[in-house]
Specification:
Chains: A mainly alpha (about 350), B alpha/beta (about 260), C mainly alpha (about 300)
Largest sheet of chain A: 2 strands, antiparallel
Number of helices of chain A: 12
Radius of gyration of chain A: 20 Å
Order of helices and strands of chain A: HHHHHEHHHEHHHH
Largest interface: A-C, 45 and 48 residues
Order of helices and strands of chain C: HHHHEEHHHHHHH
CATH topology of chain C: ABC transporter involved in vitamin B12 uptake, BtuC
Helix content of chain A: over 70%
Distance between the termini of chain C: 44 Å
Distance between the termini of chain A: 15 Å
Strand order of the largest sheet of chain A: 1-2
Strand order of the largest sheet of chain C: 1-2
Strand content of chain C: under 5%
Number of strands of chain A: 2
Oligomer: heterotrimer
Radius of gyration of chain C: 20 Å
CATH architecture of chain C: Orthogonal Bundle
Number of domains of chain A: 1
Largest sheet of chain C: 2 strands, antiparallel
Strand content of chain A: under 5%
Number of domains of chain C: 1
Structural class of chain A: mainly alpha
Shape of chain C: globular
């Protein structure tokens, strides 16, 4: 039974879901800090102790997809926009990095104009900008609609992006593009998995921090209002199309950053990154983790990847079980894992 | 307090016509609202009063006619553009943001007075420029005690009060009020009517209402509509005495 | 000339199949307010059911019936178990739950039949071509598909516009009280509508089987095109679905066939031109959709909201 009263004007963590006194609970804050410490310290220790260094790559993947899921939460949880095309921006980011690396290796320029690089100072911003551009274009068109058409259009347009990349044989086509090595950062090499993990973690935390500021800001208030009652927000005087487009673009940019990081992790950019099933995957992470809370989706990424890893050891057809799990969450545990955690923490205040 | 006399009315409607398929919901409607005036629009059900509000706020496009606000033509402007110019509307069923608290709802409205532009960084919850006017508007509508309650948990009457607090917080020049007293008990009605009375002269209003007592008490002028057409305009006394108006309402119980 | 007419008819045939999918999906959304992403899975189930029955019995008619029945049955089960709980939920919940259904159905099918395509071929009586006008010949099977599709379109039209059930279907979403007042169980009506949509999808899958390959994932490819059809035609409009489907079917087919040759006039590198043409062809319907959206954001035949 949620208490309808929220102390403070907006609540420090401004969750977009039903009023949960997230802001009030100190136990939750302590939990978060503890999780943060674990996140930073444990994985490397854990993997060395177990003698399975590949696990650090797995945790890096969790962090990277967590970043993508958080970016999706911005539009899905706070904007109320059911975008089924987020994978397109994720993939554009990944391909931006891979393409630049490709041209850098060949010593030529991308479409003869853009100088290429293997330096993260260039490639990651490039990934972000490319994804933001794609998001701005797709958003500009899709946001003219809402509801079911919006879902369909974002899905269709992201599939179009998929087809574009699959048809570019020079960039791998169906098979994807491999990179010879990870990007460097002003000469500093990230060949070591643990160092790369820390980079991903830092960028993830930065993005999470930025999103939290956005959500608590005046812009965030308008966005959340649009999710609730767009007609009212427009009647107050806000050009809601513009606000939604900006949010959509920022979310796309975040996804692009994640894509660029994943390409670097695997040293490979695959068309699967763009596939609509990946969009679905990200949405699953958001809902299982806890929509509209930013922290939840990050948790959701951990959950889904863990499930995938564990279940796929048992059976090739692990998605057969993910389907009903997802349905069960949607029907019975809509606030996701984060919602459960908050409830438990509240009861033990 | 009588409306301030100015040469140019704040809102001028000229021959506004709207058709839905075969039905003419608005038939060449003309009226005007002066600065500081409360102008009521009354009429039996089906008269097209809500359609008129829709046309004036910008949600509906007219088939013909013009709307002028503060001297400029706004017929082609969008809803949000008109609201920014100071023409703000309330809805028949209170339109608020159900998952935000009362304070957040009002803060959102206050924000519109702080200028254009996106602000991504500063915490809105600590912005005094927002909190101060929000508190004032909330107090004016007697919702202090409910400041941190999620809007969906409010009673119907409180939701209407919230909506009024919001529209007032935008510092409007003219309010389009669509049955602000509908569904309210006697005490709440009196409260809102008293509030509107206090605002008279400060904010202009176009008021669609069925509550005749409130209409005759508040309105400077009254326009009567029947089946989409204006049949009479005048002050309370002349409208009450108008035989056509009486005929239109014949047999109807007054609120 | 032969090529042109042949491809044009292929486009019509593809459009007809898209119509079978789109009509069901748009009805389900229009009447019940549910976004059903699992519609592609019902198509797949129809294809598998027909291929399986066809291989076992050797009868084409039985295969088609089996496909429709399998899809209809699956549809009813899905409606009772999952969809029923989504009527009062928001769109996001519907999207996610039906996405979960896609995962379940795809992997379930893979578990039963494996990931390799299932064998399915045009029955011997229906192979071969017949002459049409002007010495142009066209495959019998495809003519059959076009005929079946047009008949179904006509039947649907009659059902929706001229019968009591059709009126109930059209009234369902917006006027539940009226429907209830007429003594009709809303639940039963919705199950019926969903089953009908599923049957149409299954039919599309069953007849498509011999032409396209029957494998896991075939549903999603056609689902996306179906969504494009609905966007172009207008959500909730069966008429829009018909027109939209024909437009999409013909555009996609014609551009795929004629664009590569057209491009070769300008580009010298054949391999690059091929890949580019393939990419552009795939894009063409989406660009068409974008163009329609810019002109009419709610589609060509937007039903009343």
């Amino acid at each position: 039974m949620t208490d309808a009263v929220k102390p403070g004007l907006l609540g420090a963590l401004a969750p977009a879901a039903e009023a949960s006194p997230l802001s009030a609970t100190r136990p939750v804050r302590r939990l978060l800090i503890a999780a943060l410490v674990l996140l930073v310290a444990l994985p490397p220790l854990f993997t060395y102790a177990l003698g399975e260094p590949y696990l650090i790559a797995l945790v890096s993947r969790m962090v990277i997809l967590g970043l993508a899921a958080v970016s999706l939460d911005l539009v899905l949880g706070y904007g109320g926009l059911i975008s089924f095309g987020h994978a397109a921006f994720f993939g554009v980011g990944g391909y931006a990095v891979a393409i630049l690396a490709f041209h850098a290796r060949h010593g030529d320029k991308f479409i003869g104009l853009i100088p290429s690089s293997s330096d993260m100072l260039v490639t990651l911003p490039a990934a972000v900008i490319a994804a933001a551009l794609a998001a701005a274009l797709i958003g500009a068109l899709s946001l003219r609609t809402s509801g079911f058409p919006f879902v369909m259009i974002t899905l269709a347009l992201s599939q179009m992006v998929y087809f574009i990349f699959v048809s570019l044989k020079i960039y791998g086509g169906d098979d994807g593009m491999s990179m010879h090595g990870r990007n460097t950062l002003a000469g500093f090499s990230f060949a070591d998995a643990t160092t790369y993990y820390y980079l991903c973690l830092v960028l993830f935390l930065l993005f999470l921090f930025v999103c939290r500021r956005i959500v608590a800001s005046r812009f965030g208030l308008v966005l959340r209002g649009c999710k609730d009652n767009e007609r009212r927000v427009r009647s107050l005087g806000y050009p809601t199309y513009g606000y939604r487009l900006v949010a959509f673009t920022i979310a796309g940019a975040g996804a692009g950053l994640a894509g660029g990081l994943l390409a670097n992790l695997d040293r490979f950019a695959s068309p699967d990154m763009l596939h609509w099933q990946n969009s679905g995957n990200l949405m699953v992470m958001v809902i299982l983790g806890g929509i509209g809370s930013l922290f939840g989706p990050a948790l959701g990424a951990v959950l889904v990847i863990s499930l995938e890893t564990v279940l796929s050891r048992w059976t090739d057809h692990w998605m057969f079980y993910l389907g009903p799990i997802l349905i069960a969450f949607v029907l019975f545990a809509r606030r996701g894992l984060w919602g459960v955690i908050v409830d438990v923490a509240d009861r033990n205040v | 307090m009588s409306p301030i006399e100015t040469s140019e009315p704040l809102l001028r409607v000229d021959g506004l016509t709207k058709r839905f398929g075969g039905i003419t919901a608005s038939d060449s409607i003309s009226l005007d609202v002066g600065v500081g005036e409360i102008h009521a629009v009354i009429g039996p059900n089906g008269a097209g009063k809500t359609t008129l509000i829709g046309l004036l706020c910008g949600e509906l496009r007219p088939a013909a006619g013009h709307v002028y606000f503060a001297g400029r033509e706004i017929t082609a402007l969008s809803v949000s553009r008109r609201a920014r110019l100071g023409l703000v509307r309330s809805f028949q069923i209170p339109s608020i943001l159900p998952n935000l608290t009362v304070a957040e709802n009002v803060a959102l409205a206050v924000q519109t007075t702080l200028g254009r532009g996106y602000h991504f960084w500063a915490d809105a919850g600590r912005n005094e420029a927002l909190l101060q006017p929000a508190r004032a508007a909330i107090a004016e509508l007697a919702l202090d005690g409910r400041r941190n309650v999620v809007a969906a948990a409010l009673s119907h009457g409180e939701q209407r009060q919230l909506e009024l607090a919001m529209v007032l917080a935008t510092k409007p020049r003219l309010l389009l009020l669509d049955e602000p007293l509908a569904g309210m008990g006697a005490k709440e009605s009196a409260f809102v009517a008293a509030l509107l009375g206090r605002l008279k002269g400060r904010i202009s209003m176009l008021l669609v209402e069925h509550d005749m007592e409130a209409v005759f008490a508040l309105a400077d002028r009254i326009t009567v509509m029947v089946y989409g057409r204006v049949i009479a305009v005048g002050d309370a006394a002349s409208i009450r005495a108008n035989p056509e108006v009486q005929h239109a309402y014949l047999g109807e119980e007054q609120a | 000339m032969q090529l042109f007419v042949e491809q044009l008819l292929n486009g019509v045939q593809f459009g007809v199949m898209l119509f079978l999918m789109a009509a069901g999906l748009t009805l389900i959304f229009g009447a019940m307010g549910v976004i059903n992403l699992a519609h592609g899975s019902l198509y797949m189930i129809g294809a598998y059911g027909a291929a399986f029955a066809g291989a076992r019995t050797g009868s084409f008619v039985l295969a088609i019936l089996a496909g429709c029945a399998a899809a209809a049955l699956a549809g009813v089960l899905i409606e009772l178990a999952v969809i029923r709980r989504l009527y009062t939920r928001n769109h996001l919940d519907q999207v996610l739950a039906t996405f979960g259904l896609i995962l379940f159905c795809n992997e379930g099918t893979a578990m039963l039949f494996g990931r390799e395509p299932l064998f399915s071929e045009i029955p011997p009586q229906l192979t071969g071509s017949v002459p049409l006008l002007l010495g142009i010949t066209y495959p019998v099977y495809r003519i059959l598909i076009i005929a079946v599709g047009l008949v179904i379109a006509l039947l649907l039209y009659l059902l929706l516009q001229k019968t009591r059930i059709g009126m109930l279907v059209r009234a369902g979403a917006t006027h539940r009280d009226i429907v209830r007042a007429l003594g009709v169980s809303i639940r039963a009506l919705f199950t019926l509508i969903f089953g009908l949509g599923a049957c149409l999808a299954g039919l599309a899958g069953a007849i498509a089987g011999p032409l396209l390959s029957v494998q896991v994932g075939m549903g999603e490819q056609i689902l996306i095109l179906t969504l494009v059809v609905i966007v172009i035609g207008g959500v909730g409009s069966v008429r829009g679905a018909f027109v939209g489907a024909l437009i999409v079917g013909v555009t996609d087919t014609m551009i795929r066939i004629f664009l590569p040759g057209f491009l070769l006039l300008f580009l010298s590198n054949t391999e690059g031109a091929d890949a580019l043409a393939a990419g552009l062809s795939s894009m063409s319907v989406y660009l068409l959709m974008a163009a329609v959206l810019l002109w009419r954001p709610r589609g060509l035949f937007a039903a009343y909201d």
